[in-house]
Write a structure and sequence with these properties.
Layout (H helix, E strand, L loop, with lengths): L1 H17 L2 E16 L22 E6 L2 E8 L2 E8 L10 E14 L2 H4 L5 H27 L1
Antiparallel strand pairs: 1-5, 2-3, 3-4
Helix pairs in contact: 1-3
């Protein structure tokens, strides 16, 4: 029985203490964050080209958009070289800058924020009264069971 009274008392006190709310108080420091607005896969499509060359010479050179090819015949053997030219494409990624003001967390009872008309001691008094009444009710119920 004493354990039950202790548990009810602890729960009542924990209820009084736990009635707090965290607010964030801004400081004079700030920082910038960058977020990506659009992050997509970009596919670059180039128009296909076809070149051909017929020659009775032993060397043939073809050039296209971004590549060139050279073919030579030497000692009855065909040597063919294909070279892809380096390519650089610029892609713009949309970014947005967010200015954030730093803040410090602060815990205090919610009644100080929400209602200024009722003082905080009144809430604590009500919670203590509920705790005392429930403890008294448990004691009375246990005496009626015994007797």
């Amino acid at each position: 029985m004493k354990q039950l009274i202790t548990i009810v008392t602890i729960l009542g006190l924990a209820g009084t203490i736990a009635c707090t709310k965290t607010i964030y108080i801004p400081t004079d420091r700030s920082h910038k964050e960058y977020i990506t607005l659009r992050d997509t896969i970009i596919e670059i499509v180039t128009q296909g080209e076809s070149h051909s060359n017929r020659t009775s010479d032993t060397t043939s050179l073809l050039q296209g958009n971004g590549a060139h090819s050279m073919a030579t015949i030497s000692n009855g053997t065909l040597h063919h070289t294909l070279t892809i030219e380096p390519r650089q494409d610029s892609i713009t990624i949309q970014m947005q800058e967010i200015h954030t003001i730093d803040s410090i967390p602060y815990r205090h009872p919610p009644n100080e924020i929400e209602s200024k008309s009722t003082p905080s001691w009144a809430y604590h008094l009500i919670i203590m009264a509920i705790t005392i009444l429930s403890t008294t009710g448990i004691l009375m119920a246990s005496r009626f069971r015994k007797g």
